[in-house]
Design a protein that fits this description.
The protein has 526 residues and is mainly alpha-helical. The two termini are 44 Å apart. 62% of the residues lie in helices and 5% in strands. The radius of gyration is 25 Å and the shape is globular.
Length: 526
């Protein structure tokens, strides 16, 4: 019944995400377009982006997209279901791991998956066509294998760890090692009494097993994709990524102020902090040490590496959920007055949404549809109701309900009116018609393949710098180019055959004559 409730919770959030926003550029549209090009080529080994081998991400997620298309036909909805399905698997694995590490506390296995499912960042990426929740499946399997091995089931446990490492590499690269190896190495602290020579030898065997699984794809793909692709997947996915990450300029503390939002509503609830403080005031249970050894080294490592993105933390969320559920297992069931602080987030968000609905979005009045005041009003009303009823609610029911209400209302009332600026389908379909008529098409600046899948384009676009577009048009006088300008007024002045809103700018399809009258082209980069 618990898993059924979690599935319903996740299904509702997924449905809201699908009706509120399209596949969003640049990341979601890029990954689905890479899978589309693999599908077109009938090539299961080498990913392609706009006609060129794509080495930035390994292929497991792209394979899952293609498997779904093979079963259901090529469609838009299947890529949007892979992450929710992966999320549901993670929730089940979290409940299973909770039963393993704290079998005497049934409440932990009930609460932990709900804490995970209702954390704000987890909700966001569970409904996105991204790699991180899929990676978390393999992190959880690897962590479960380490626990089983510590219970004396060495062959089964380290075999599961090796499997998780191999498929984790295929899901998102060698970062899986950062997520699982510190926990295994720190076993002398959280599980004393093991035979350490045998233990560390088994870790090495698991890593080699994982490497063999990953190489079963990488070696044939490297030969098939050519020298540049081969160099990228064997070197660029490891050393070059580490070098690039240290070249960025985000401070080591960057994650810390974001945690209350990313882990909303749990991390802003005083009841959790009191429960954690009480737990740490006594001798830590083995399950608590296990979670600390899993999460603390990884969080410190991500903090020290200057290249930071919020989704890097997604695979750590099950650890947070298990740690929190253990701390909360013995606390009083009522939410209490501490529930007013999470409700304040809902009130503030509602006030901001209502303000922008009434006053407009100052930076984007020419491309964003008006935000309806109903969403802000609903959040304010729900927040005020919360102030009255929340102290009497069970802490789990109350906070999960609040965690559902905030992203649901924000997506339906705020994100949905802005969706037209992120839906690339109109331009993509126009490009498809031109391609079918044999018209050459160029794209100004860096191209993230955002139009390939949306338009089911069967040929790459020519990527041309803004400075080189006049020369390109001299060789293709009947061609078209996709360029980007900063305002609707500038786009409409050209009287182009097509334009559309695009992420705060305007994408315009221009001819050679129109390009000659265009100034202020915005070069598209990262």
């Amino acid at each position: 019944l618990n898993l059924l409730g979690l599935a319903l919770f996740l299904a509702l959030l997924t449905a809201i995400a699908i009706v509120s926003r399209p596949l969003t550029p640049i990341d979601e549209t890029r990954y689905v377009s890479v899978a589309w090009e693999m599908w077109l080529r009938g090539d299961f080994w080498v990913p392609f982006k706009n006609g060129v081998p794509y080495s930035d991400k390994p292929p497991l997620l792209l394979w899952l997209y293609q498997i779904g298309w093979a079963v259901f036909g090529v469609n838009d909805w299947w890529p949007r279901l892979v992450s929710p399905i992966s999320s549901l698997i993670c929730l089940g694995l979290t409940a299973m791991l909770a039963r393993q590490i704290r079998p005497e506390l049934r409440e932990v296995s009930i609460s932990a998956p709900w804490i995970l499912a209702s954390s704000l960042l987890w909700i966001l990426f569970s409904t996105s066509a991204m790699f991180d929740v899929l990676l978390t499946v393999w992190v959880l399997l690897g962590v479960s294998g380490i626990w089983l091995a510590s219970q004396g089931k060495l062959v089964r446990g380290f075999g599961l760890l090796g499997l998780a490492i191999g498929f984790g590499v295929l899901a998102k690269g060698p970062v899986i090692l950062l997520h699982v190896l510190p926990l295994a190495v720190l076993a002398p602290w959280w599980s004393p009494g093991l035979k350490w020579k045998r233990w560390y030898g088994a870790i090495v065997v698991s890593v080699l097993m994982g490497a063999a699984i990953a190489l079963a794809w990488a070696i044939p793909a490297g030969f098939k994709g050519g020298e540049e692709f081969r160099h990228a997947i064997f070197w660029g996915q490891t050393a070059n990524r580490m070098v690039d990450s240290f070249a960025h300029r985000r401070p080591f503390w960057w994650y810390l102020p974001l945690l209350p939002v990313l882990l909303y509503p749990w991390m802003v609830w005083p009841g959790l902090w009191r429960a954690v403080a009480a737990t740490f005031s006594t001798r830590l249970a083995r399950g608590m040490k296990f979670c600390l050894a899993w999460g603390v080294p990884v969080f410190v490592a991500f903090s020290l590496i200057s290249g930071k993105q919020i989704h890097y933390l997604v695979p750590l969320f099950p650890m947070f959920a298990l740690l929190s559920a253990q701390a909360l297992a013995d606390r009083p069931q009522k939410l209490g007055r501490g529930g007013l602080i999470p409700a304040a987030f809902l009130l503030l968000t509602g006030a901001a949404a209502l303000w922008f609905a009434l006053r407009g979005l100052p930076a984007h009045n020419d491309w964003a549809e008006a935000i309806s005041p109903w969403a802000g009003s609903a959040m304010l009303g729900l927040g005020l109701l919360w102030l009255v009823v929340s102290p009497r609610l069970h802490w789990r029911h109350g906070l999960v309900g609040l965690a559902f209400a905030l992203p649901a209302l924000v997506q339906l009332g705020v994100v949905r009116p802005l969706a037209s600026a992120y839906d690339v389908t109109p331009m993509a379909l126009q490009l498809r018609r031109l391609q079918q008529n044999g018209v050459p098409i160029a794209h100004e600046g860096k191209y993230h393949a955002q139009y390939q899948f949306a338009g089911r384009l069967e040929r790459p676009l020519e990527v041309i710098s803004s400075q080189s577009l006049p020369e390109w048009f001299s060789h293709h006088p009947q061609g078209r180019a996709v360029v980007y300008v900063s305002s609707l007024k500038q786009a409409q002045a050209l009287k182009p055959e097509f334009y559309q809103l695009y992420r705060g700018d305007v994408a315009v399809l221009v001819t050679r004559d129109q390009l000659a009258h265009l100034s202020g082209v915005r070069v598209q980069g990262e």
